[in-house]
Amino acid sequence: MIAWRETAAMSRTSRRDHPTGPLTQSRARSGGGHHGSLGGVRLTLERSRRVASPILAAGLLMLIALQRVTLGTHPTYLGKYYAMLAVDPFHPGPDNPVGHRILAPLLSYVVGLRGPYLLYTLLLVVLALLAVTYRWFRSREHAPAWAVLGTSALALSMIVLTTLHYGGYPDALTGLLVFGAWWSRGRLAVSSAFYFLALLNHESALFLAPWLVAEQARAGSEPAHPWLRAVAAVGVSLIAFWGVRWALERTHPSVAYTLKFYLNPMLRDPLHWFRASAPHRWLGVAAAFNLYWLFPLLAATRMLLRGKRADAALLLLPIPCALAQLFVAYDVTRLSALAFMSVLLGAEYLLRTNGFAARRWAPLLCLANFFIPQVNVAMGIVDPMKR
User: Would you give the DSSP letter of residue 326?
Assistant: First the structure.
């Protein structure tokens, strides 16, 4: 009986100490708000990490790349003309041969980095290209270490090394925009806008049109006429580009690198440019990616062995597209670097599927590639890039 009374008293005390009225509900809501605030903080930290990690990875890869080549600290060769164009993009000098390639100088002009400060804009572009590539690898469920290794296929290739070494060369911006056109290939309007900008940066992106059409057609969300839609989307980009280019040529007719500059010699000798690129041609092609060329070749081989012939052909298509440029120009290594999407997609495929046990030998391949002296072949001249 005593025990029962003590238990009842404790029960009444418990109810007094833990009321269940509006005050309790208010406290509960307050506690829920507290946890909600913590959730918001965690979400903010997670978002910050997602932004910071790619930038840190890109910065690390840039530092590694600068062990392969010497950083260009001033505009050089054609970079001088790009820097001049960054002073006033719409009024190039009469002797400026790249006066129609306005995108990189215009971008630098808009952000206030004019003249030789174009180099800083392009370094930021390199950082953005590597960060976006790393983020894409992570979105494909690759661990951070493998994402860094995969991104090194760009960081240690000429699509990046050219911009780092030859001050003022905007090759990395072309790479960033082409990658954007591919990544957004399922949204034709966005993809075609990226492609248009890539063409404004350098008309060499024109050679990737067949590959981009094929990629857009395969990724199209609309079941009806995907190839027709893709051809129309890329066609709009090309028409818009030629419209801008025509206007620029009419305004500045003295700019050297026009369509006539490339086509006139071919009217006399269709193989003029191809002959000009003959000295050290295959060394120049190899130097674009060195050992990283193995990634697309092995990836395509594995696809063929698994009966995926269309996938293999699409993976390799940027390579002949890029090499076709050798019939109209002679900067062999830089032109070959336009095949970077084959190398990048080949690396991602092998690392994701572990094809041919790639995760065993890929780190060794990257290490060996690091010690191959980097050269650039142009006009038959072999130029070492580490001084």
Answer: G
Q: Which residue has the tokens 């400026």?
A: 96
The encoded tokens of residue 45 equal 């930290």
Cβ neighbours of residue 131 under 8 Å, at least 6 residues apart? 54, 55, 57, 58
Q: Using DSSP, how many helices (H) and how many strands (E) does the chain show?
A: 20, 2
| Beta bridge mates, 384 | 375
The greatest distance separating any two alpha carbons of the chain, rounded to the nearest whole angstrom, comes to 118
Q: 213 and 204 in contact (C-beta within 8 Å)? A: no
Distance of alpha carbon 104 from alpha carbon 163, whole angstroms: 12
Task: Output the tens digit of pLDDT for each of the chain's 387 residues.
Answer: 444 344 444 444 444 444 444 444 444 444 445 556 777 776 666 677 778 999 999 999 999 999 999 999 999 999 999 999 999 998 888 889 999 999 999 999 999 999 999 999 999 999 999 999 999 999 999 999 999 999 999 999 999 999 999 999 999 999 999 999 999 999 999 999 999 999 999 999 999 999 999 999 999 766 788 999 999 999 999 999 999 999 988 888 878 888 788 888 888 999 999 998 888 999 999 999 999 999 999 999 999 999 999 999 999 999 999 999 999 998 999 999 999 999 999 999 999 999 999 999 999 999 999 999 999 999 889 999 998
Cβ contact 200:210 at 8 Å: no
Q: How far from the centroid of its chain's Cα atoms is residue 160's Cα?
A: 9
Element (H, E) at 376: strand 375-378
Q: Give the length of the chain.
A: 387
Taking the domains of the chain in order of start, what are their residue ranges? 53-384
